[in-house]
Amino acid sequence: MRFDLVDLNLFVAIAEARSITAGAERAALALASASTRVKRMEETLGVALLRRQRRGIELTAAGESLLAHARIVLADVEALQGELAAFARGARATVHMLANTAGLSEHLPRVLASFLVAHPDISVAVDERDSPQIGQAIASGAADLGLAVGQAVAGHLARFAFCDDDLVLVTAPGDALARRRQVAFAEVLERDFAGLPEGSVLQDHIAGHAARLGRKLRLRARMKTFDAVCQMVEAGVGVAVMPEVAARRAAKTLKIARVRLRDGWAKRRLVVCARDFGALPRPAQLLVQHLRAHAAQFTALRS
To answer: Residue 55: is it exposed, middle or buried by C-beta count within 10 angstroms (0-12/13-18/19+)?
Structure first.
């Protein structure tokens, strides 16, 4: 089947004008040339596309089908031309990525910064979602890449381990819990908590585990950042559950203690996931290579 864009554009023009003559004029072709092109398309397909009538033409069922597909092809070509023209004007390619709260705030910023410095013609847009939503969005093609808890990502998605992201309990150093090596989440549900704002993906996740135990978190303070939450803990407002990497960083400047949570859901590993790494656009593949390199560094530090 050998159609070119001139053929498709001509056919759409004829179909919309309901006339070969008028269609030829719209497509800036001579009538004889337009008639020859339509006849060649019909011969190639082995089916009639038009019914010639005294007052114009009507499309056959095959013609209606060709019209629908031709419009899609021409629209895609127009979009392609517009996108390439944007690149010619200096526009940047954008990689769309989804990440959970800890990935977005703790693990990605430095890694993405080095990638963006190395690739000034690429931009990265990252949105926050919880891990099950990330897996669903990647599977549906709503984003290029995801950074999510591995256990929550569907098995059919491509993935590689990126880093550990365990959740820990954070307390004031003088708290009796600070002397414990580990504690079960159920043991601390009588305590006051400091946490992230309402609607925070991670905070909703923690509240969900409390609800499964038949309890509701007593949140006395909701702060925008992990550092601010740790300041509340240091002041004795309450305890908090957060990623260990955030608590470890805050402990360099604040007087807080970290206690491991015994619960299985608190032991997490983040994975980078995609529908198919090999099928990603080139800019996204470059980001995958960069993330793999950092994942390899993480593995080397653990070994």
So the answer is: exposed
Tell me which residues of the chain have a pLDDT lower than 50: 300-303
Instruction: Pull the structure tokens for residue 290.
Output: 């960069």
Q: Which residue's structure tokens are 């997490």?
A: 268
Question: What pLDDT, on a 0 to 100 scale, did the predictor assign at position 301?
Answer: 42
Asked if 221 and 232 touch (Cβ cutoff 8 Å), the reply is: yes
- The CATH number of 93-165+268-302 is 3.40.190.10
CATH of 5-88, one of 3.40.630.30, 3.40.720.10, 3.40.309.10, 1.10.10.10: 1.10.10.10
Tell which phi-psi region holds residue 30, choosing left (phi > 0), alpha (psi between -120 and 50) or beta.
Answer: beta
pLDDT, tens digit, 9 for 90 and up, residues 231-267 = 999 999 999 999 999 999 999 999 999 999 999 999 9
Angle between helices 31-45 and 61-88 (to 10 degrees): 110
Best CATH choice for the domain 167-266 from the list 3.90.1150.10, 3.40.47.10, 3.40.50.1220, 3.40.190.10 = 3.40.190.10
The tens digit of pLDDT for each residue in 95-133 reads 999 999 889 989 999 999 999 999 988 889 999 998 889
The Cα–Cα gap between 85 and 105 comes to 35
Residue showing tokens 């309990």: 169
CA angle 207, 212, 214 (to 5 degrees): 95
Distance CA 251, CA 230 (A): 8
- C-alpha 100: how far from its chain's center? 11
